[in-house]
Amino acid sequence: MQTAILLFDRFTSLDAVGPYELLGRLPGAETVFVAEETGPVRGDQGSIAIVADRTIAEVPRPDIILVPGGPGSRRAMENPAILEWLRAADAGSTWTTSVCTGSLVLAAAGLLTGRRATSHWLTLKELPALGAEPTGERVVFDGKYVTAAGVSAGIDMALHLLGRIGGDELAQTVQLLTEYDPQPPYDAGSPEKAPAGVVAGLRDVKVE
Amino acid sequence: MQTAILLFDRFTSLDAVGPYELLGRLPGAETVFVAEETGPVRGDQGSIAIVADRTIAEVPRPDIILVPGGPGSRRAMENPAILEWLRAADAGSTWTTSVCTGSLVLAAAGLLTGRRATSHWLTLKELPALGAEPTGERVVFDGKYVTAAGVSAGIDMALHLLGRIGGDELAQTVQLLTEYDPQPPYDAGSPEKAPAGVVAGLRDVKVE
Fold it and tell me: Are A201 and A188 in contact (CB under 8 A)?
């Protein structure tokens, strides 16, 4: 089993690394970071660069495709090489997945047409114009298409996938190994829970 | 304000990237990934490499030091260049922090002597021999020394730190932006909660 994690300039690093850390522990699986060209790819805050070890052309038939989000997803949505790779790879994939605004890239490739999907809460409203049906769930399964909400939701998605692929005991083992027993000191992780002023402050931000 | 995230061969990627994603959003802060030498540093599962943009020698006085864990922490604990850098940088830091077995590296540098600290649940028992007092908490503050439990606990630690440094509203804004509203499909993230068989399976593993 091969998992391909797509990188593009200005991706959000936790979107990619959260699922990587968990899914990468699937016994016998190979994970590969891919991009249009090999070499370091810079994340959205500029301080991080993760190395793409292979080009997308070199990884034509991954079993699992994972597309992170980030400001750079806007350009990815308009990049024919990325969209064509996604369509071709999806034709042979077992799971086609995204985190955050990565769902906009999948949708731009035509892969979420008529499907239930999610995205970062600030960009959910963009899904209908791209053919998908937005839902407020944190992780959405529609057949083999799995989309997660913003950034950290990719960790929850990875646990769901591990359970589906390797069974509950494997997923629980990875949860315990990564000590994923969340205890955030605030309860502000969704617009329904965060203080109104915090939500309003982010609504005014142009989220790319 | 400058945050230095230490990389070493076979670090655990989420230990570094979880806190990076949140702490990096501190307004006006610069985050830099450092290692003994610049260039790509491979994580513990082998498929990821994050670029160290600067050597530790080039970043002598960070305000925040963050040491991730991972199998490679064993060699880091015995690496004089890393230990000397940690001691010198700590002399000027505002916060000295770790995730997972990163606390063993801080302790090996003599920085946790007599202090309360945590680590991955499988390595907590190693802290006393290194001079620290283990606790079962997920995030432990002892003065400027902040240690987080295994892997994903670094995200909670980052939220705590954001609150202390920038205030509750900033921390809540970052929590909402990263949509950190955890909904794991299992409740197996600590040895107290996971099924006994899952805990036993990991206890038998040699955790480096």
Answer: no
Which pLDDT score is estimated for A208? Answer: 45
Query: Which residue in B13, B49, B138 is closest to A21 by CB distance?
Result: B13
Residue A148 pairs with which residues in a beta bridge?
A: A99, A139
* Mean pLDDT across B27-40: 96
At B157, the amino acid letter reads M
Angle between helices A13-23 and A153-166 in degrees, nearest 10: 30
What tokens were used for A122?
Answer: 């600030």
Give ipTM to 2 decimals: 0.96
Q: A186 and B198: CB-CB below 8 Å?
A: no
Instruction: Note the pLDDT of residue B133.
Output: 98
Contacts of A32 in chain B (CB under 8 A): 47
d(CA A60, CA A159): 25
> What is the per-residue pLDDT across B140-161, written as a single tens digit (0 to 9) for each?
999 999 999 999 999 999 999 9
β-strand A145-148 against A95-99: which pairing, if any?
Answer: parallel
Can you tell me whether residue A46 is helix, strand or coil? Answer: coil
Structure tokens at A110: 């035509």
Q: Which two tokens stand for residue A14?
A: 């936790």
Contacts of B1 in chain A (CB under 8 A): none
Q: Rounded CA gap, A169 and B165, in Å? A: 39
* Residues of A taking part in catalysis: 100
Q: What torsion, rounded to 10 degrees, do the Cα atoms B64, B70, B73, B76 define?
A: -70
| Rg of chain B taking only CA atoms, in angstroms | 16
Who among A151, A159, A188 is closest to B184 (CB)?
A159
Q: A156: which chain B residues are within 8 Å (Cβ-Cβ)?
A: 182-185
**Adjacency order of strands within the sheet including A139-142:** A54-55, A30-35, A2-6, A64-67, A95-99, A145-148, A139-142
Q: Check residue A205 and give its pLDDT.
A: 67
Rounded to 5°, angle at Cα A58 from A56 and A63:
75
Residue B11 DSSP class: B
Backbone phi, then psi, for B181, in 5-degree steps? Answer: -125, 70
> pLDDT (tens digit, 9 = 90+) per residue, A47-106?
999 999 999 999 999 999 999 999 999 999 999 999 999 999 999 999 999 999 999 999
Which of A156, A177, A198 comes nearest B202 by C-beta?
Answer: A177
Give yes or no for B208 touching A (CB within 8 A).
no
Contact A44, A72 (CB under 8 A): yes
Walk me through the domains of chain A, giving residue ranges and CATH numbers: 2-183 (3.40.50.880)
